[in-house]
Specification:
- 40% of the residues lie in helices and 29% in strands.
- It is globular, with a radius of gyration of 17 Å.
- The N and C termini lie far apart (48 Å).
- Helix 7 links the parallel strand 5 and strand 6.
- It contains 9 helices and 10 strands.
- Bound molecules: S-adenosylmethionine (SAM).
């Protein structure tokens, strides 16, 4: 008997979840005033920190950040593993034909495909609104990001710390024990269907980054469901 037989839900990947909600995602975000404000603050921070050039948007979703990225003069690699989220971006923004945009989407969106980009070619990796909370192993992911960043390049990511006390305590003990395993919580998004969301403490983010040659610049609390922006710079 497996763990899942006990709790009677089947656990899917976050990608299944985003495939299901893709059509309503933009409306959900636009109706959420705090989200709109925070997105604006993240945009300002990013544009003030990162010079024009090529950037990777990791977990780009439906492309809610694409217009500002292009109008600020960035060339965007649009990376999104949910085929339905990417197809929303295709419908509303024409990502496959849009000048200044290249895509790594659907089944191609994996670390191997990021690995095919030229080394030291990116000004920044950007990951907005908790895409990295769907990733269990940050160490491998950050190592690939770091290899693609130019020296002085930026990793700017927004993760949620919206986890209960028990998860956070577990994470402290896990960190102290030197474990690299992320603490996760299981979220039931519809009856009988759930997914794992991974908690990455500031300390574990910084450790994964340091292992990859990324130095911590700063982190900023955002006024939206315990989201936090963290900024690293490649040595
Ligand atoms: C909350 S949405 C954020 C989308 C977009 N960045 C935004 O700000 O609107 C999280 C995104 O992460 C994507 N995602 C899920 N698992 C992922 C993974 N392993 N790697 C990269 N992105 C992932 C989801 O498909 C989804 O589009």
């Amino acid at each position: 008997m497996t763990y899942h037989d006990f709790d009677m839900t089947s656990t899917n990947s976050a990608i299944d979840y985003y495939d299901i909600i893709a059509e309503s995602y933009d409306q959900m975000m636009r109706d959420d005033e705090p989200n709109v404000k925070v997105r604006e603050a993240v945009r300002t921070y990013f544009c003030q920190s990162v010079p024009q050039g090529k950037i990777l948007d990791f977990g780009a979703g439906t492309g809610l950040d694409l217009e500002w990225q292009l109008s600020a003069g960035y060339e965007v690699i649009f990376y999104e593993p949910s085929a339905n989220m990417a197809s929303q971006a295709e419908k509303s923004l024409g990502i496959s034909k849009r000048p200044g945009v290249s895509t790594i989407v659907g089944k191609k969106a994996d670390l191997e495909h990021i690995g095919m980009l030229p080394d030291a070619s990116l000004e920044a990796v950007f990951s907005n609104f908790a895409a990295l909370n769907s990733v269990e192993h940050l160490k491998e992911t950050f190592a690939v990001f770091a290899s693609k960043l130019k020296p002085g390049g930026h990793l700017i990511c927004v993760l949620t710390n919206n986890f209960d006390k028990v998860s956070r305590l577990k994470s402290v003990f896990s960190d102290l024990a030197g474990s690299q395993a992320a603490i996760s919580k299981k979220v039931e998004y519809t009856k009988g269907q759930s997914m794992h969301v991974f908690y990455h403490s500031g300390r574990s983010l910084r450790r994964a980054a340091a292992n990859s040659g990324l130095r911590f610049e700063q982190s900023i609390q955002l006024d939206f469901e315990k989201h936090e922006l963290t900024h690293f710079i490649k040595y």
